[in-house]
């Protein structure tokens, strides 16, 4: 059976990694759908789809997760909620269940009769993309909330500096 995990992964953090591991305990294959794939270089979506794909792949490999069971697919937003699920289905391989913690995404899939499940969340107050981006922008300790390979790649590619610059421009 194959599961779909929907997220923006801005950045890929320990909560995402935990979700991937939980899903792979129950499913043979996993599609990691990178949502809002067309957006980048903004405070809300600082990384490109390509950067997110690379970070996720390298992090999963570093964590010894069997990559042959995983697809990473970027999906741009349509901006039109009633057709979004069909749009997703046209771009990703078939799947049996969706994993998300986003209420709108859950509603859109369940309204189309598609089963949605949840995983246990890790320390959601601190481990969220929004909070991690804020910490990066303020140059606070953020590395503890992401897998080591993710932190390494963000720094190596100077993506932390992009976030600092983007948040500075918003003031």
Describe the SSE topology.
Elements: E1 2-7, H1 14-26, E2 29-34, H2 49-62, E3 70-74, H3 81-91, E4 97-99, H4 103-111, E5 116-117, H5 129-137, H6 148-156, H7 159-169
Helix pairs in contact: 2-6, 5-7
Q: Main traits of this protein?
A:
Rossmann fold, five-stranded parallel β-sheet, 5 strands, 44% helix
Describe the structure.
By secondary structure, this protein is an alpha/beta fold. The protein has a single domain (2-169), classed as 3-Layer(aba) Sandwich (Rossmann fold), CATH 3.40.50. Helices cover 44% and strands 13% of the residues. The chain has helices spanning 14-26, 49-62, 81-91, 103-111, 129-137, 148-156, 159-169, and strands at residues 2-7, 29-34, 70-74, 97-99, 116-117. Strand 4 (97-99), helix 4 (103-111) and strand 5 (116-117) form a beta-alpha-beta unit.
Spans with pLDDT under 50 lasting ≥5 residues?
Answer: none
In CATH, the architecture is 3-Layer(aba) Sandwich
Number of domains as seen in the coordinates: 1
Please report the number of helical segments: 7
Q: What order do the SSEs take from the amino end to the carboxyl end, as H and E? A: EHEHEHEHEHHH
Overall body shape: globular
**CATH class term:** Alpha Beta
Structural class: alpha/beta
Helix fraction? Answer: 40-55%
- CA-atom Rg in angstroms: 16 Å
């Amino acid at each position: 059976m194959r599961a779909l995990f929907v997220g923006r992964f801005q950045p890929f953090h320990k909560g995402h990694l935990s979700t991937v591991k939980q899903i792979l305990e129950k499913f043979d294959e996993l599609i990691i759908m990178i949502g809002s794939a067309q957006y980048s270089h903004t405070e809300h979506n600082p990384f490109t789809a390509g950067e997110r794909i690379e970070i996720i792949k390298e992090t999963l490999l570093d964590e010894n997760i069997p990559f042959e069971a995983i697809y990473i697919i970027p999906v741009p937003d349509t901006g039109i909620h009633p057709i979004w699920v069909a749009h997703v289905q046209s771009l990703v391989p078939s799947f049996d269940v969706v994993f998300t913690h986003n209420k709108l995404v859950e509603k859109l899939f369940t309204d189309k009769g598609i089963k949605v499940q949840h995983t246990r969340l890790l320390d959601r107050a601190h481990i969220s993309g929004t909070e991690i981006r804020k910490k990066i922008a303020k140059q606070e300790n953020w590395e503890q909330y992401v897998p080591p390979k993710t932190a390494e790649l963000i720094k190596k590619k100077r993506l932390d500096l992009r976030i600092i610059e983007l948040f500075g421009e918003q003031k």
